[in-house]
Amino acid sequence: MRNHKPLLVGITGGIGSGKSTAAKIFSILGIPVYYADDRAKWLMAHDPELKKQIIAAFGEESYTADGTLNRTYLAANVFGDEEKVKTINGLVHPAVKSDFESWSQYQDSPYVLKEAALLFEAGSYKELDKVINVSAPLKIRITRIMLRDPHRSEEQINHIIDQQLPDEEKNSKADFVIKNSDNKLIIPQVLKIHEELLKLGK
């Protein structure tokens, strides 16, 4: 474990904004990136305490006989119901928070990134030192998602976008904004933020 605690920086952005691309550039620059959404899925599948809590809240059917997370069951019985979504988030977010905290203690870097889709919506941005929002015009985002996920309908995409805070609100809450439109290069913006964060994380 290192003596100097790294600066904790969040990177977020609405679906199709390009936050994963921006996070990859930081990663190429040698910055450790914690992918919160992927890690949440891993914890739901492997963390014994969290599994116990999910079974207590949603029943034995939440996991298959071999202990695998029953995504089909959860998608059908949880994700359409606002109250149940709140319940599952209330179990998963604290598990991710403590996992991220222990992970960040072992990173030998001036700062680390926590990449998450709902940093502002979930309130977890309050636990971070700085936040970067990746922003892109709505039309461009919808086109990107349809190209990337051809199985999603425009209606489904709009539903996901409606669950997320509007870009203007995220930009006003963020410490740094990366504009990822077709006429704005993303790499120079990442490099500029990287330089500033290196100074802050000294």
Automatic annotation (TrEMBL):
It comes from the Bacteria. Keywords: ATP-binding, Coenzyme A biosynthesis, Cytoplasm, Kinase, Nucleotide-binding, Transferase. Transmembrane segments: none annotated. It holds the Pfam family CoaE. Gene3D superfamilies: P-loop containing nucleotide triphosphate hydrolases (3.40.50.300). The gene is coaE. HAMAP family: Dephospho_CoA_kinase (MF_00376). It catalyses: 3'-dephospho-CoA + ATP = ADP + CoA + H(+). It is found in: Cytoplasm. GO terms for molecular function: dephospho-CoA kinase activity. It comes from Fontibacter flavus. Its main location: cytoplasm. Its EC number is 2.7.1.24. ATP binds at G16, S17, G18, K19, S20, T21. Pathway: Cofactor biosynthesis; coenzyme A biosynthesis; CoA from (R)-pantothenate: step 5/5. This is Dephospho-CoA kinase. It is an enzyme of class 2 (transferase). NCBIfam families: dephospho-CoA kinase. Belongs to the CoaE family. InterPro entries: Depp_CoAkinase, P-loop_NTPase. Catalyzes the phosphorylation of the 3'-hydroxyl group of dephosphocoenzyme A to form coenzyme A. CDD domains: DPCK (cd02022).
